């Protein structure tokens, strides 16, 4: 449960404009779709995917780091790491198990004989969109466990796009369609409260000192 008094205490420190922006952005956030990237070797691509998630309203990004340890490229993410939840996994199986337990269908974004064109994709089901490495694509484990396959229509000679470009195109298309639909795609009231608290803490300098002061003044909490 969220400590509403603590939330009010922190938000009282923020400007009215920032609090208003939080509510406006949260109104368009969703967990109906989530994104997963697998062993993306070039770090800036993972960061760019995170930025696309933030811009188009995807709240969670799942990062599988089975082979390559990474850190977020803050220059590329441009602060997106403060507003998007990053779930890290050290194995493909761990990520798949976690997402399936949350009710997501696994969608591999890769050319495949049973694939679905982007504009024809059924957006009604909660879906985890998987993007693979630049050179090798998605692993066999993900392909074998996929519930569906999705690709971007292309009419040129080039057969593939950079992962960050592919992610941006797919996320933008699907979230636009989602917001025009009557699907219940928004965050729950409890999820919104959690994000308001997280974002308030991320916005306040010296949050540890301020938090300590709050609990000192409210020992019953």
Automatic annotation (TrEMBL):
Binding site for S-adenosyl-L-methionine: 109, 152, 161
GO terms under biological process: methylation
Keywords associated with the record: Methyltransferase, RNA-binding, S-adenosyl-L-methionine, Transferase, tRNA processing, tRNA-binding
Annotated function: Catalyzes the 2'-O methylation of guanosine at position 18 in tRNA.
The organism's place on the tree of life at top rank: Bacteria
Encoding gene (name): trmH
Enzyme Commission number(s) from the entry: 2.1.1.34
Gene Ontology molecular-function annotations: methyltransferase activity
CDD domains in the cross-refs: SpoU-like_TrmH
Recorded catalytic activity of this chain's protein: guanosine(18) in tRNA + S-adenosyl-L-methionine = 2'-O-methylguanosine(18) in tRNA + S-adenosyl-L-homocysteine + H(+)
Designated name of the protein: tRNA (guanosine(18)-2'-O)-methyltransferase
PANTHER family noted in UniProt: RRNA METHYLASE-LIKE, TRNA_RRNA METHYLTRANSFERASE SPOU TYPE DOMAIN-CONTAINING PROTEIN
Similarity section: Belongs to the class IV-like SAM-binding methyltransferase superfamily. RNA methyltransferase TrmH family.
Domain annotation tRNA/rRNA methyltransferase SpoU type: ranges: 33-171
Top EC class for this record: transferase
Pfam families membership: SpoU_methylase
């Amino acid at each position: 449960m969220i400590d509403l008094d603590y939330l009010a205490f922190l938000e009282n420190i923020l400007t009215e404009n920032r609090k208003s922006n939080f509510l406006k952005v949260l109104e368009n956030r969703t967990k109906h779709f989530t994104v997963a990237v697998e062993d993306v070797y070039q770090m800036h691509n993972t960061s760019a995917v995170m930025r696309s998630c933030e811009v188009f309203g995807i709240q969670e990004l799942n990062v599988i780091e089975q082979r390559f340890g990474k850190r977020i490229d803050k220059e590329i993410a441009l602060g997106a790491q403060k507003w998007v939840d990053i779930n890290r996994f050290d194995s493909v199986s761990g990520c798949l198990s976690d997402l399936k337990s949350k009710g997501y269908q696994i969608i591999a974004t890769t050319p495949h004989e049973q694939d679905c064109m982007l504009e024809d994709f059924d957006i009604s089901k909660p879906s985890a969109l998987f993007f693979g490495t630049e050179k090798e694509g998605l692993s066999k484990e993900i392909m074998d466990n996929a519930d569906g396959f999705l690709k971007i229509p292309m009419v040129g000679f080039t057969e593939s796009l950079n992962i960050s470009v592919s992610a941006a195109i797919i996320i933008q298309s699907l979230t636009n369609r989602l917001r025009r639909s009557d699907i219940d795609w928004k965050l729950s009231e409890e999820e919104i409260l959690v994000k308001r608290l997280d974002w308030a803490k991320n916005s306040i300098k010296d949050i540890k000192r301020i938090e300590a002061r709050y609990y000192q003044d409210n020992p019953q909490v």
